[in-house]
């Protein structure tokens, strides 16, 4: 989940597999909303390695659903992964055959992405002013990152960069609160933060989605088994913890370790998620193939 800071300059790395998507001059930046303040929105930069090591990936069923709802295969699709962070979704899109370019505002996150996936093109920028040419993409994806944008600006930019008939896909990993221990942990997190915050993610609400587009939704349950240390590092990589300061975050996570060590005596935690996916098709018919 990577925020968009529209004040950052855009520049591109030059990895081995270059993208043919053409950078364009960005539009003027809009002021950040309070939720996008740098103290929160760029907090991930100082925990990039932890984020890359501990955050969950996505199940194959997600990418099957994206292909179905986008009405095209990922293989060969010119794809922009916005708010790419350390490249968790970017790599999986690439492995499905997408010609993918990552767009990432944070210097630390972009550096970690390039370090771990040097074959993937990385462009510094954000969803509010995509540094890419008009009608240059078949698919734009936001994995854990749409909520950091100004939805009006980001919607206009997505529609500008998408080709007619291209698809916009937004998704989030959301912890499954039907699992008792996860629901109990969420209660502790919200009590600790005291402002409705958690580190479990929230399902997308219709009024948070891009306006004026007809979305199709899917919910895709999945699980992963990880060491307790990885589970706690995953929690600690969320911005709600990163902006707290080390001492209170460490205190909560130490208490959580003691609770979960009793619940999972073998030291392995099964995390349960549901990927909340929303896909919309851009207006206009796709161009006819060249004879």
Tell me the layout of helices and strands.
Elements: H1 38-41, H2 48-54, H3 60-70, E1 78-82, H4 88-95, E2 99-104, H5 107-116, E3 122-124, E4 137-143, H6 151-161, E5 162-175, H7 180-193, E6 215-227, H8 228-236, H9 239-242, H10 246-263, E7 268-281
Parallel strand pairs: 1-2, 1-4, 2-3, 4-5
Antiparallel strand pairs: 5-7, 6-7
Helix pairs in contact: 2-8, 8-10
Strand order of the largest sheet: 3-2-1-4-5-7-6
Low-confidence stretches: 1-38
The largest sheet, given as strand count, sense and whether it forms a barrel, is: 7 strands, mixed
Rough outline: globular
- The helix/strand series, from N terminus to C terminus, equals HHHEHEHEEHEHEHHHE
Share of residues in strands: 15-25%
Distance linking N and C termini: 41 Å
Structural class: alpha/beta
**How many β-strand stretches?**
7
Helix fraction by DSSP (H/I, runs of at least 4): 25-40%
Radius of gyration: 19 Å
Mean pLDDT: 82
Q: How many helical elements?
A: 10
Explain how this protein is built:
This protein is of the alpha/beta class and 291 residues long. 33% of the residues lie in helices and 21% in strands. The protein has helices spanning 38-41, 48-54, 60-70, 88-95, 107-116, 151-161, 180-193, 228-236, 239-242, 246-263, and strands at residues 78-82, 99-104, 122-124, 137-143, 162-175, 215-227, 268-281. It has a 7-stranded mixed β-sheet. Helix 4 links the parallel strand 1 (78-82) and strand 2. The relative contact order is 0.18. Mean pLDDT is 82; it is low at 1-38.
